[in-house]
Amino acid sequence: MTGRQLLRRPGYDVDVERILEACAKHRVAVEINANPWRLDLDWRWHGRAIELGCMMSINPDAHSTNEIDLTHWGVEMARKGGVPADRVVNAMGLQEFASWLKQRDRQAEKLPRRGPARQRRSSLRITRQMPRRDNMLRTRPTARSGRSR
Questions:
Q1: For the whole model, what pTM was predicted?
Q2: Residue 106 has pLDDT above 80, yes or no
Q3: What's the rounded Cα separation, in Å, for the pair 17 and 71?
Q4: Contact residues for 139 (Cβ-Cβ < 8 A; gap 6+)
Q5: Residue 146 — left, alpha, or beta (φ > 0 → left; ψ -120 to 50 → alpha)?
């Protein structure tokens, strides 16, 4: 949320209270970034987020499969901040998560919209996109040597 990097740079000067209020109002899960350099949202704000009605999501900020285990640090911070498991969306079972998304969508439809109306996408629609052909890793022989590049 704040972009901080522990022991490297402070976070942005944002109004965390106001952001948490907006997240609660719009039923947007607040991320607990589990990367040890981030650990953001700071655990000292977790209690306030829970008081306001926020749900939390613990994410590893992984940039490779080797970093998925960083989730452990997010769980530790959630525990330190007093976040109960029933307020963490990625601790929910499939049916419970689907129900939460449906309820969230119904509530969002009741909220006034700002700006031009836009078509809403269902949160439950899961699509699988195939990678674009030009982004796929391909090897082909070079004209000169016949070796792959």
A1: 0.69
A2: yes
A3: 25
A4: 148, 149
A5: left
